[in-house]
Amino acid sequence: MKFGVIVFPGSNCDHDAYHVVSKHVGQPVDFIWHKQTDLSDYDAVIVPGGFSYGDYLRAGALAKFSPVMNAVKDFAARGNYVFGVCNGFQILCEAGLLPGALMRNSNLHFICQHVNIRVENGAMPYTSELETGEVLSIPIAHAEGNYFCDDQTLAELENNNQIIFRYCDENGEIVDRANPNGSRSNIAGISNKEGNVLGMMPHPERACEELLGSNDGRDIFRSLTKAIAEK
Amino acid sequence: MKAKVYVTLKPSVLDPQGKAIHHSVELLGFEKIEDVRQGKFFEIALDADLSETEARQAAENIAKNVLANPVIEDYKVEIVS
């Protein structure tokens, strides 16, 4: 089993993701420079957070044209796992691997804080080690995390159980005041229809050690590892 | 030959930046402002050999695939020779 962490100019959570995979998941992992076009060595690819291409034009808009992204599209189309976090989620939406778009936070602020998210679907490759309804404490750090999609897309996401995480209060209630950025339907993370591509704004790779305030992120990586092993 | 491309949020999409600008404009004392929407403006210099139709096609393609995100934005292209 081997993980890859894609590095764009401006990625800055690549080392965190690498650290978590090598130390907490205990699996081999490589950095993949964005000019690479061969992903055949890998079982899962992480598209990490950061400010790829300085967030010029729109967050993630220019990264989708990096050579590696065509390879990522083929990789995903063959059913392999692609996991986008924060800027990675924005890139996957811009690239059309996930539906919708991430817009400026409704309060216009860059928000950096721990939030609670509820597991909405605990029976998919990224959440099998979690329970549906479980509440995780995971940090967010973004200015463009306001998830938007049209009514039809939202209905499809709901009907296919593609909404994986929602912002919630400490009791797991999905309420407006627990929604940090104005996301539609409190959406914090979604998958594609097949469940092999996941994007989320909160940073599970920053929540894998008690020292950092939470280790709730570990179960997401453990679930993914299990899914790869069982594939 | 130049193409001017205007990218705006779809009317159905909330524009928090436009709202903040609207608020600031009101603080400055301007009245009777109903709404402010923010967008982006691009100027693309194109080869002078292109016909207007070819230039428009090229600019529309660039706008659709790069400059605008069709999930949230509309675009308008003007060709200036």
Count the E strands of chain B. 3
The CATH homologous superfamily of chain B is called Phosphoribosylformylglycinamidine synthase subunit PurS
**Mean residue pLDDT of chain B:** 95
Morphology of chain A: globular
Globally, the shape of chain B reads elongated
SSE class of chain A: alpha/beta
N-to-C SSE string of chain B, H for helix and E for strand: EHEHE
Q: Spans of chain B of 5+ residues with little confidence (pLDDT < 50)?
A: none
Estimated radius of gyration of chain A: 16 Å
Mean pLDDT of chain A: 97
**CATH second-level architecture of chain B:** 2-Layer Sandwich
Number of helices of chain B: 2
Total tally of structural domains of chain A: 1
* E-strand count of chain A: 11
Distance between the termini of chain B: 5 Å
Oligomer: heterodimer
Q: Which sequence of strands runs across the widest sheet of chain A?
A: 2-1-3-4-11-10-9-6-7
CATH architecture of chain A: 3-Layer(aba) Sandwich
CA distance, first residue to last residue of chain A: 11 Å
